[in-house]
Amino acid sequence: MIQPIAAEDTWPLRRDVLHPTQALPTALDPLDAVSDARHLGWFEAGRLVGVASICRHGLPLEPDAIAWFVRGMAVAQDWRSRGIGAQLLDALLAHGAARDPSGIAWCHARLPAESFYLRHGFRILDRVDLPGKGPRLRMRRALALT
Length: 146
Description:
This protein is an alpha+beta fold. The protein has one domain: 3-Layer(aba) Sandwich (Aminopeptidase), CATH 3.40.630.30. It is 26% helix and 36% strand. The chain contains four helices and seven strands; from the N terminus they run βααβββαβαββ. The chain has a seven-stranded mixed β-sheet with strand order 1-2-3-4-5-7-6, sandwiched between helices. The radius of gyration is 14 Å and the shape is globular. It starts with a strand and ends with a strand.
């Protein structure tokens, strides 16, 4: 079941799935702390098995767009391929669309997640190398698909 969670509650799963060699953060990332950030968790039998976040944050390639940045999506290995990521993403997009119906969503997708985002209406803008994180695909889509 999806529930709103605190940014700090996303950290262990994000680290385990996305950055297993890094230490847990000791302070909020500036994007986790913005007033319109939304952090969601998926719980099964009291265990947090999926997390995802979104916040209003400009897309570098479209500086005039109303943009929402999808970030930190992670689902525990033993819970993948069950639709958890899709439902978390849908909930994030609905959150952004409720605030900015004509806005866009964007992300820095890990290369193995390309097909996931393509299935959900994102398109590739370019490939970027993020310091400390490696190659990513910058992708975007309208928040509200018609």
